[in-house]
Amino acid sequence: MRLSEDRISAIAYKIAFELVKKRHLKTQKRLNQVTAWIERPIIDHFRAEDSIDDLIRADMAKMTTCPPEGSFEYQALFQKKKEDYARKRGYQL
Q1: 45, 12 in Cβ contact below 8 A?
Q2: Alpha helices for the chain (secondary structure H)
Q3: What is the pTM of this model?
Q4: Residue 36 CA: distances (Å) to CA of 3, 9, 23
Q5: Rounded Cα gap, residues 89 and 20, in angstroms
Q6: Is-contact 12 38, C-beta < 8 A?
Q7: Does residue 48 register a pLDDT over 80?
Q8: Please, are residues 60 and 81 in contact by the beta-carbon 8 Å criterion?
Q9: Which long-range contacts (CB under 8 A, 24 or more apart) does 56-59 make?
């Protein structure tokens, strides 16, 4: 994941706190529950992106003329494949 789960939790808490404090969100639930509601879709998104990355790495490993990992060509090809995969599957990256 691009961000750790602890960092995502901290960001979600700040968002939840501000929403409740400024009364954009009126709820009888505890702040921890609101934080979880905000946190869950963010973590799910990053996990879905990680699974896409794993699929693309596996596909690129099967290529006979794959550029070396970490090279500019590899990164460009990886990003292109990722955008194509996301577009075909209807994901927003």
Answers
A1: no
A2: 5-21, 31-62, 72-89
A3: 0.74
A4: 16, 8, 18
A5: 35
A6: yes
A7: yes
A8: yes
A9: 56/81, 56/82, 56/85
Give the C-alpha separation, 9 to 63, whole Å.
38
Which residue type, as a one-letter code, is found at position 47? R
Q: Tell whether the model's pLDDT for residue 1 goes beyond 80.
A: no
Round to the nearest angstrom and report the end-to-end CA distance of the chain. 13
- Tens of pLDDT along 14-34? 999 999 888 887 878 888 899
Residue 66, phi then psi, degrees to nearest 5: -80, 135
- Cα(5)–Cα(20) distance, integer angstroms: 22
